[in-house]
Amino acid sequence: MVLDAETSLVRFENVGLRYGLGSEVLRDLTFRIEPHSFQFLTGPSGAGKTSLLRLLLLSLKPTRGLISLFDQDVATLSKDALAALRRRIGIVFQDFRLLDHLTTYENVALPLRVQGQRESSYRQQVTELLQWVGLGERIWALPPVLSGGEKQRAAIARAVIARPHLLLADEPTGNVDPNLAQRLLRLFVELHKSGTSVVIATHDIALMDQYDARRLVLHEGRMHIYE
Fold first, then answer.
1. Which of 90, 161, 179, 205 is the most buried (most CB within 10 A)?
2. Which domain holds residue 114?
């Protein structure tokens, strides 16, 4: 799929979300994410950031409103079509979600294996990325023996290895020291420069202040946008 200036990568129109019979946790969300864009998603704890990321990942359906991805209304798509769209999205979860029976290398290479690529075609790419994020000596380690920060870096490497059209990151620098946080943010910036749209959920105001980027601010389930 070729993205052009006329394509909205993501479009929300009057989207609301509630769990069960409770009140809406997200209400009246109307916004767009354009191709090749970079934005922070922020707001206080409980504002709905993780729920919004799950909507963007297509792992939740809205209670009301319209969500389109790559100019396709997701409500009308089949399971196979939704799965195909998800493969264009990279995600860094707060709980990492690495597979414990796979090595660091195998976890990071997994999106490329799912795409059907031969191991010989991506071996160098995966190895170089792991070295760049400081895991060069942990390539063959299994996740249970990695520290929290090492798991975070492996999860980030797995999310970016296939150069997705859209990268979603939930507190991606929460388990690393400030110097490494800066290095990882540079990786996201370089990925953005190569054409990926990036959404980073974070509480770190100081980190956001270092970048001239759009901010999507959630407060009590509603969104305020600062360009």
1. 90
2. 99-163
Domain presence at residue 59: no
pLDDT of residue 6: 52
Which stretches of the chain score pLDDT less than 50?
Answer: 1-5
Q: Which is nearest to 117 in space by CA: 70, 155, 163?
A: 163
Q: How large a percentage of the chain has pLDDT more than 90?
A: 63
Domain for residue 110, yes or no? Answer: yes
| Residue 39: how many other CB atoms lie within 10 Å | 21
Provide the pLDDT for residue 203. Answer: 87
pLDDT at 144: 96
**How many domains does the structure of the chain reveal?**
1
Residue-level pLDDT at 177? 81
**DSSP line for the chain:** ----TT--SEEEEEEEEESTTS-EEEEEEEEEE-TT-EEEEE-STTSSHHHHHHHHTTSS--SEEEEEETTEEGGG--HHHHHHHHTTEEEE-TT----TTS-HHHHHHHHHHHTT--HHHHHHHHHHHHHHTT-TT-TT--GGGS-HHHHHHHHHHHHHTT--SEEEEESTTTTS-HHHHHHHHHHHHHHHHTT-EEEEE---HHHHHTS--EEEEEETTEEEEE-
